[in-house]
Amino acid sequence: MLNWLAMWGVTQAAGLIFKPILEDLAKDAAKDWAKDLLKGIPGKIFQKLKKEDIEIAAGKALKEFLQLMQQQLKVRCKLAETEIKEYTTDIQKFISYKSVTEIIGQAMIEPKFVGTIVDYLIEQDGEKEEFINLFLAAECLGEVRNRSIIDTIAEQLLNHLKCLIRYVDIYQEDSSISPQERNRLNRAISRQAVSVIAKIWKENTNTLPWLKACAQSDNNWHIRWQATKELVESWKDDPDTLCIVKSNARNDEDFSVRAIATRELAKNWKDDPDTLPILKDAQSDNGWLVRIAAMEELAKNWKDDPDTLHILKTYAQSDIFWFIRQEALQELAQGWKDEPGMFEFLYKCVLDDPFTSHQSDAESNPRLTVLKAIIEQFPQHHQTLPLLRDRAKNDPDEQVREFAQKKLKQLEG
After folding, report:
1. Measuring CA to CA, which residue among 319, 251, 253, 326 is closest to residue 284?
2. CA angle 11, 16, 20 (to 5 degrees)
3. How does residue 2 score in pLDDT terms, banded at 50, 70 and 90?
4. How many CB atoms lie within 10 A of CB 375?
5. What single DSSP character describes residue 109?
6. In terms of C-beta density within 10 A (0-12 exposed, 13-18 middle, 19 or more buried), how is residue 145 classed?
């Protein structure tokens, strides 16, 4: 019992006349009274709270409610403490009704009560659960209509989240986690922190300047990556956003940031005079993510541009990565099948693609991809069956040979 009372802050609440009510609840903390009390909290947040979180938050909130009731009886009704104490049994009975508990719970979305939950979540050690306590606290805060009432708690939470962004070696001393997993966790947590700050503190006048700085000059690429996305999502019309996205697409030192900026530029500023040149120039970028992003956006939105077909053919024939050649071949087979000379081009790629061997199960031979495309798009072409026969015998990749042999049996009966 003392443990629950301490967690609810009852033992520190000097002068609380209605303390016996909370003492009785502490004896039976596993009951559903806590769930009923917190039903006013939006479901998406309520469902993420652990049972213990619900009970602690509900106990703290109910303590606040009882303190408020005691104050009202003293100030408004001008009752002495002995007179107020006489209401204990009646109040306890009153709040035991489920319907009454739910009505009281509606007040839990008010700033002061949500602040109680946020404050509790901030105090928890969430490192082992990827700091879900802080992200959940931010979600709770996002539901508050008048945040200025709990401005101190909101500022405290904001500072904690900014620390997560700066603290890029959160799991550095955990030897049970591989370096790869450690990097993944650090990136995921810091990205989520940037996203939460951008969304929950969107109206804060300091957020936009801070986010611009993150997008342009943060030392960590994943922070620049996330900040670029958030700028486009929430501040697309800000006069600086387009300039930042263009700069990141052209100049960021990390190819992941250049890639996301390239995609966002194509999706959101298609008609800007710099967008198409940036996409075309990407074919010489040394980052594969940038090249594949630019190629996909060109095929999707600039199919009729006179340079697009030539650029896709260059990707299909010359890119050093098999998956970019494969993607380009798929785009060509689907989007330009009626283009004069397309069969001959694809035919040549089936014979000449330099893919050598499968280093893992995830790798796929572009020759097999384009052979399947030819069968699907050009089944009646007079050279399709001869090509299949040739690949069934002569392709150096066993998977291609087996596919061609199986397909020949189906087609030739």
Report:
1. 319
2. 75
3. very low
4. 19
5. G
6. exposed
What the block records as the tokens of 48 is 């993420």
Domain co-membership, 262 together with 297? yes
The answer to whether residues 220 and 255 belong to one domain is yes
**Structural domains in the chain (count):** 2
Q: Which of 283, 280, 355, 296 is nearest to 331 (CA)?
A: 296
Cα separation of the two ends of the chain: 80
Let me know whether 277 and 347 are in one domain: no
Q: Is the pLDDT of residue 175 over 70?
A: no
Range of the domain at 370: 319-413
| Token pair in block for residue 12 | 């520190």
User: How many Å apart are CA 76 and CA 73, to the nearest integer?
Assistant: 6
Q: What is the CATH number of the domain that holds 219?
A: 1.25.40
Nearest CA among 214, 218, 220 for reference residue 240? 214
DSSP 8-state class, residue 174: -
Q: What is the model's pLDDT at position 368? A: 96
353-399 pLDDT, tens digit per residue, is 999 888 787 789 999 999 999 999 999 999 999 999 999 999 999 99
Which of 302, 336, 364 is where one domain is finished? Answer: 302
For residue 285, what is the DSSP state? -
pLDDT for residue 30: 46
Tokens 């194509």: give the residue.
266
Residues 289, 335 within the same domain? no
